[in-house]
Each structure stands twice: as structure tokens, then as C-alpha cells.
TrEMBL record:
Its main location: cytoplasm. The lineage of its organism: Bacteria, Pseudomonadati, Bacteroidota, Bacteroidia, Bacteroidales. Residues 58-61 are annotated as: G3. Keywords: Cell membrane, Cytoplasm, GTP-binding, Membrane, Nucleotide-binding, Ribosome biogenesis, RNA-binding, rRNA-binding. It is a peripheral membrane protein. CDD domains: Era (cd04163), KH-II_Era (cd22534). Gene3D superfamilies: 3.30.300.20, P-loop containing nucleotide triphosphate hydrolases. It comes from Segatella bryantii (Prevotella bryantii). Residues 148-150 are annotated as: G5. This is GTPase Era.
Amino acid sequence: MHKAGFVNIVGNPNVGKSTLMNQLVGERISIATFKAQTTRHRIMGIVNDDDCQIVFSDTPGVLKPNYKMQEMMLAFSESALADADVLLYVTDVIESPEKNQDFLDKVKKMTIPVLLVINKIDESNQKLLGDIVEKWHGLLPNAEILPISAKNKFGVDMLMKRIKELLPDSPPYFDKDQLTDKPAKFFVSEIIREKILLYYDKEIPYSVEVVVERFKEDEKRIHINAVIYVERDSQKGIIIGHQGVALKKVSSEARKTLEKFFDKRVFLETFVKVDKDWRNSQRELDSFGYNPE
Ligand SMILES: Nc1nc2c(ncn2[C@@H]2O[C@H](COP(=O)(O)OP(=O)(O)OP(=O)(O)O)[C@@H](O)[C@H]2O)c(=O)[nH]1
Ligand SMILES: [Mg+2]
């Protein structure tokens, strides 16, 4: 008998959802940084075996929307509640369990198996962890609790084993050689955005969207043109930096990661453009691919 299902990863920002998905899938599919709100889309990572297919979904951290973009992000997270066969609700040893009661109430009402994953236990100790487990047990009595460290891959194999047990009997949903639902261009823009998150401060990374306008592969190289959109003229200057130094650094870091990702030489050209208040424009968000079902 073949098993297959959707295992959706949800939780508050910065708890390690993307790090966990990458560990479960064994590939660097989703960008993960120390900054909250790194993930903006629902991104599938598919694990294929002869007798099972696990379709993981990484989602944006749940937050109260301030911009239309964040409304779209929340819609991606909520879509993951609607079609899950197994839900991974990820928290960590740092955040307070009461942080997001609305979303938690929705999770509480779910009838599918919920695995409550307590991440970052490398930052905790037995006593503290015991208290946290007890608290969560009170909050989500029906959830199975699994403490892990995604970063150190501690407890991840056990989690995987449990997921496989809970997976329903079903034929596969995707081709057995498919790793994700997103095209190559998406990963290019995400890798560039990851470098922007790491390199610039404050509001800058959050005001940025990256669009890949050209992706052309020949025998030797991949030629990529990417546009970095910002919301204001002043931000454009910051992205480019004095004599273009900042943008050069970001582009060169992105190129290195892209070469690893595609296992091929990459020629990357980046451009910066202003798209006023794109985060609040439904039309722009549509064109940038923020289309939760
Ligand atoms: N100490 C420790 N840090 C971790 C662990 N797992 C993830 N992190 C760190 O936590 C930070 C956030 O990780 P992400 O995977 O980007 O978190 P996320 O939940 O996807 O965040 P958003 O996409 O912003 O919602 C990064 O700096 C990770 O390196 C862990 O097991 N232990
Ligand atoms: Mg993430």
C-alpha cells in the first residue's frame, strides 16, 4: 500500500519552520535567517520513497497584518490549516505560548493529527523544557509533543518516523521525481532576498521584492537578470550603497549560493527599481505572485 499526504508546517515567526523543513526534506528549499518574517510564501518540499510521498509545506510565520502583503502571508499560513493531513505546529523554547491565541484556537479545533514541535531545545535545559512541555500540554491537549533541535538535526529522524506512521494511504499527488512546487526562478529570487535580509538593517529587507526577469541556461552557465524592487527612492540608494559597494557584495554572495544550488556557473546581473508602496498594492502583489488559494 502506498502512503501520501500533506504535512503542513505552521507557527509564529522565527521559530525555525524553514530550518525544519529543509532538514526534513534534506535540501535547502526554503530560505532561513535570524530575522522574523523571512518566509513570505507557501513553499512545498516533497520527500519521495518507493512506498510514500510526503508533501511538506513551509509557511510564513503567523502575524497580525499591517500591510496587504502580510494579509497574503497570513492567507498562505491559513491555507495550510485547510488541506493538511498532518499539522506540524512549531514553537520554540523562547517564545511565550500565549503569543498568538487566535491562530492557536484554530489549531485546537482541528481534527487531523497535530504534532506540536518544540524547537531549539539546544538553547534550553531539562527543567525549563519540562515546564514548557507542561504548558503546551495544557494549551493543546490533543497534540503529540516532540522536542527537537532543527539546527542540530536532533529529534528530526524521530519526527520523520512519526509523520510516516500518521500518513494516510493514498496514491502520490506529484511526480515521484518532483522536489517542490516552485520554479527555478522562485528560488533565485529567494536566495537574493536571503542575502538582502542578512546584509541590510531595519525596514530595508522588508521593503524589498525580487523579480527574476531572465533565466537562461546554456551548457556552461546560467544567465540571470534580477530586479530588486524597493518602495522608495531613499531605499534604492541604500540598497546600491556608496559607489555600488553594497549591491556588489549582495550580488556576489547571491551568485555563490546560486552556483551551489544549481551546481553550475552563474552569471548574475542585478538592477534596483522603485515601485511605490508595492506592499499595499493588490495589483503589484498579484504580479509578484502573492496568490493564496
Ligand atoms: N538555537 C537554535 N536556533 C535555531 C534552530 N532552528 C532554527 N534556528 C534559528 O532560528 C532562526 C529562524 O529560523 P527560520 O527557520 O528562518 O525560522 P522560521 O520559523 O522559518 O521564520 P519565518 O519564516 O520568519 O516565520 C534562524 O536564525 C535559525 O538558524 C535550533 O534548533 N536551535
Ligand atoms: Mg521561514
